[in-house]
Amino acid sequence: MRTLLDVAGGQMGGARRFADELDGYRRTRGAGLRVAGSGRMLSIPYLARREARLAAEPRLRRFVALNNYSAAGGWAERWVLLRNALHFLRAGEKKRMPPGLVRRVEGQARLVTALLRRADVVVVPTRSMHDRVLDRLPWLADRTVVRAHPLTPPVWTRDAGAVLLCPVLFAPFKDIELHLRTLAAAVPKVRAEYPAFRVQVTCTAGELRSARVSETAGLEPAGRVTAAEVDDLHSRSSVLFYPGEVESFGYPAAEARLSRTPVVGLDTATNREVAGDALVPFGKADPDSLAQACIQALRMVLPPLAVNPFDPVAYFDWLSGAAL
Asked: What pTM does this model have?
């Protein structure tokens, strides 16, 4: 295929899930697909070494940077996947975030933008991410393609009562502490209709206390869990709580959609696009709205999906050029 994928960078959350899908594709269909940067962190020296390597590979047909930083030179067609919404924050979003975080991501965004001038194809995972990028960089319009992230349908044996799962990642831009307090305030309202309603949160009791959530609030800490343990929790839950706001995609919402699990989430363009018919929206910091969304989700029965909108084979065939 003469295609090289650069996978250097973060290996947590959505980046890890994407990497797992790539590994699965390579095992079944893409054994000849070349990958660079495995286990490496992104840095200026790494990007410089990458440029030198590309310059020495005149027969390479396509180079795909899966980590936001396009190649600048080389002989190959240059593709880049933009997957960090923080690089394209809007003015109102910046005001709600720690100044130190904003300064850091703006520094990264300057380099991302400079390298984008050399990209031949820019891939984004959602239409909402497309709009973010083009609001800032309209000159990329004729080079930007929307392609949803790849995802294999999860195999979950559902045996659940009125259980809501809240997988959390504590990060300055996610407002998780606020969402947990809102969820705690909503629990009694949901239990008025569903007395057996339970909420499991993938964090420790100490993290709940740090979020100023009382131990008697009805949120059960499941602790820090592995990917396999999260799958087990999914199998024992009937609703997913996913309040992602500044996101480029949202793997938890996509997994829930494929497993036909209702998603209680904020009414954002990204959540509507990724969660699809599984989304039950609620108003931020509004316990009454959240309680009603949980009750509605507990009553929902979603029909089977005819096709997988996140088909990983189609995605990687297209990205690598195997589909040509």
From this structure: 0.92
